[in-house]
Each structure stands twice: as structure tokens, then as C-alpha cells.
Specification:
It contains five helices and eight strands. By secondary structure, the protein is an alpha+beta fold.
């Protein structure tokens, strides 16, 4: 096995909110805090959030999700090996197999058939420059955004609907690192292209919560110039 690593930065083009799952409520505090490094208290982008969103986008991009219906339901469930039997189109089936190989399958059922997941998404940490810039500007790594629900009849805010959301401000940058495990029968060029496709889709979509309300727009840059050139030329 060989391990390749792709490094770069994620720049926020709009405020980012990835929930931290607060265990305490504070009077006058925010309703939805962002997840933070417990040691530094700086916001982070969990590798699980990045991996999950990229995997989901690829499933939709290749229409794999259409074969992942829950029993007797119109809802979709996470891709697993059992869903491969539902796919008759060879091209779509091969894409689904690749997604399972690269990202892993939901649950544990028959996952050993394709071995361990090939992509390793590590937690993304705020760059030192961004941390300094944010604290110099406001004394904090985050911002608080107030939101209210609107009454459709009157066009005014509903009483008691005010919520305070914590976000990482636009312009902040995070370092990211993604490992690629390449085994004897794997094709590193194919795996790398699939990863870049997923990351490209992410720049067209959003990361984190409340994307439909303007949150989570991002830009991705790579430390490797050749990889950046390949990414820039990638069309979907």
C-alpha cells in the first residue's frame, strides 16, 4: 500500500455554521454554536463533515441515490453494498462501487468485500493568519447572526422566533489534508480524479448547515500547482 496526501486551503466565501452540539444553555447565549477544537477553542471543520458532504454530492451527481430508497418509502438511505443489486446500469453500478471503495459503506454489512475506505479526511484547522485576522478585527474567532421566521401574511417577523446563530465569518481559511490509500489493484489517477470531482461539486454547493440561507459557500485551493491546474480545468 502507498499513501498519497493532498493538502490545501478551504476559504469561506460566506459565513459557515457546522453545529457543535452544545450541552449547556446560557441565558442570552447563542442558540446554535459552531464546533470548536476543545484545546484551542478555535472553530474547526470536522473531517467527517467534509467527507460526508463530498460523498453525498457524488451519489447525487451519478444518480446513485435513486437506487437507495428505504423500504416502502420515497426517502433515501445511505449507500451500502446491498443497494448494488438494485442498479442495472453498468456505468452507474461501477460508480457506486467506487464510491463505496473510496468512502466506505454505511453500516458494516459486507463492507470487507471492498476493504477499507481509500480516502482519509482529516479535521480542518483555522490557519494562523486567519486566527490573527479574526481576533484583531473583533476579538473573536466567530460572529453571531440573528435570524427570524417571517409571517407569510404580514411579511413581518414572528414574535418569539428570533434565533442567534454562531458562524465562522466570510474570508476565514482552513487548512485541509486528505489521504489516499492506494492498494495494489487501485488506480491512483482514477481515485484522485474522483476526489477532485467531489471537491469541485462542493464548491458549487455548500458546506455545513443553512446552505439554502446563504451559509457555507467555499473556495478550494491546493498547495500543489499541478493539482490546482487540474482542478481548475475540471468541468462537470
Amino acid at each position: 500500500m502507498k499513501i498519497y496526501t493532498i493538502n490545501g486551503q478551504i476559504e469561506l466565501l460566506s459565513g459557515l455554521h457546522i453545529g457543535g452540539g452544545d450541552t449547556e444553555m446560557h441565558i442570552g447565549g447563542v442558540d446554535n454554536a459552531v464546533i470548536k477544537d476543545p484545546l484551542t477553542k478555535k472553530p474547526i471543520i470536522p473531517g467527517s463533515s467534509l467527507k460526508g458532504k463530498v460523498k453525498s454530492l457524488l451519489e447525487y451527481f451519478y444518480n446513485i441515490h435513486l437506487y437507495c430508497h428505504k423500504s416502502n418509502s420515497s426517502d433515501y438511505e445511505l449507500l451500502n453494498v446491498k443497494h448494488l443489486d438494485n442498479i442495472q446500469d453498468d456505468k452507474t453500478k461501477n460508480k457506486a462501487i467506487n464510491v463505496i471503495k473510496y468512502f466506505g459503506a454505511a453500516g458494516t454489512e459486507k463492507t470487507n468485500e471492498y476493504g477499507v475506505s481509500r480516502f482519509v479526511f482529516r479535521d480542518c484547522y483555522l490557519t494562523d493568519d486567519s486566527a490573527r485576522a479574526l481576533t484583531d478585527l473583533s476579538g473573536s474567532y466567530t460572529e453571531i447572526k440573528a435570524e427570524t421566521a417571517i409571517d407569510r401574511k404580514t411579511g413581518t417577523a414572528l414574535r418569539g422566533s428570533l434565533r442567534l446563530y454562531e458562524r465562522v465569518p466570510r474570508g476565514a481559511k482552513f487548512d485541509f489534508s486528505i489521504g489516499i490509500r492506494c492498494f495494489e489493484d487501485d488506480n491512483i489517477d482514477e481515485m484522485q480524479k474522483e476526489l477532485l470531482t467531489g471537491l469541485k461539486l462542493l464548491t458549487y454547493d455548500t458546506l455545513g448547515g443553512s446552505g439554502s440561507r446563504g451559509y457555507g459557500s467555499i473556495k478550494i485551493t491546493f498547495n500543489d500547482a499541478a493539482l490546482q491546474n487540474q482542478f481548475d480545468k475540471l468541468t462537470l
